[in-house]
Design a protein that fits this description.
Layout (H helix, E strand, L loop, with lengths): L4 H14 L5 H13 L3 H6 L7 H15 L4 H5 L1 E4 L2 E4 L12 H10 L5 E5 L5 H9 L4 E6 L2 H14 L5 E5 L13 E6 L14 H4 L15 H9 L4 E10 L5 H10 L3 E7 L5 E7 L2
Parallel strand pairs: 3-4, 3-6, 4-5, 6-7
Antiparallel strand pairs: 1-2, 7-9, 8-9
Helix pairs in contact: 1-2, 1-4, 2-4, 6-7
Length: 283
């Protein structure tokens, strides 16, 4: 039996509600729009139209994937961050709203015609958002995963910032090459989950998101130790280093930087009141 897009949305919403999905109405519209190859506005325009059998099958497949626990962002292939739409794949983490605090902190510290180093950039949501917000800024984005870096490059093209974004496939725990010069702001949302905690994460994370972007070592703090040791020469005098941290890690991360000679470590809380960002300087 055929069904209009409106009927498909209703049926999809009901299936999601029965599965306990809290935002079933929104997800139903996004799933149907993606399967139909339409924007939200186009779906609304065509809401009473009857899709082809191919589109019906695509909606059913999207719903099957969602009911199996796959995150919505991977199914529709994109997600919003800082008001911009980013491509996401299974090679990149899904951007979280909590990370917008980190991006905002970096933006506030960037001077006119400043330059930014984004370590562990993944799909590029932090560094590329900074470029989209500030037309006078340049950024170097570093990522160990070649597939994730390829996604970041495509996101740079979609945002129209390719000319100001420079990409390096490299290990963020190693000192940056001296040839890169110094930066006004260094920012990172590194892997910070203790490796032993990964099996206990929600299945939508542990079964779908890339473990290379989650595993922060035995205690989750390996990347912060490396940053504290290796990034002093890469930061301009008066510049800012700012990092995202896991829940409960902020004070220990701040102490790591303090012990390594960084000055005035400051902890910022996200909208949920969780200590989420540590920032510090050298002068």
């Amino acid at each position: 039996m055929s069904a209009s897009y409106q009927e498909m949305i209703v049926d999809t919403r009901k299936a999601l509600e029965q599965a306990g999905v809290s935002s079933a109405g929104l997800e139903a519209r996004l799933l149907v729009a993606s399967a139909a190859g339409k924007t939200a506005d186009e779906l609304l325009r065509d809401i009473r139209m009857y899709p082809s059998a191919e589109r019906l099958e695509a909606v059913a497949e999207h719903l099957r994937r969602r009911l199996s626990g796959e995150p919505l962002a991977y199914i529709i292939g994109e997600w919003s961050f800082m008001g911009h739409i980013f491509e996401v794949t299974r090679d990149t983490l899904i951007p979280r709203s909590d990370t917008e605090l980190l991006c905002e902190t970096a933006l506030e510290a960037l001077p006119e015609k400043g330059n930014l180093l984004d370590l562990c950039c993944g799909g590029g949501c932090i560094g590329l958002s900074a470029l989209a917000e500030r037309k006078d800024v340049n950024a170097v984005l570093v990522e160990l995963s070649q597939p994730a870096l390829a996604v970041a490059k495509r996101n740079a093209m979609h945002l129209g910032v390719t000319g100001r974004a420079f990409f390096i496939c490299g290990d963020a725990t190693e000192p940056p090459a001296d040839a890169l010069g110094q930066f006004d702001v260094i920012v990172s949302n590194p892997p910070y989950i203790p490796v032993g905690d990964i099996p206990g994460l929600d299945r939508s994370v542990k079964d779908y998101e890339p473990h290379i972007a989650l595993d922060g070592g035995e205690d989750g703090l390996d990347f912060y130790r490396a940053f504290a040791r290796n990034l002093k020469r890469a930061l301009k005098p008066g510049g800012l280093l700012t990092v995202e941290v896991g829940a409960g890690e902020a004070r220990e991360v701040a102490e790591i930087f303090r012990r390594n000679g960084w000055l005035r470590p400051e902890i910022l809380c996200d909208l949920s009141g969780i200590e989420r960002v540590v920032k510090c300087t050298l002068a």
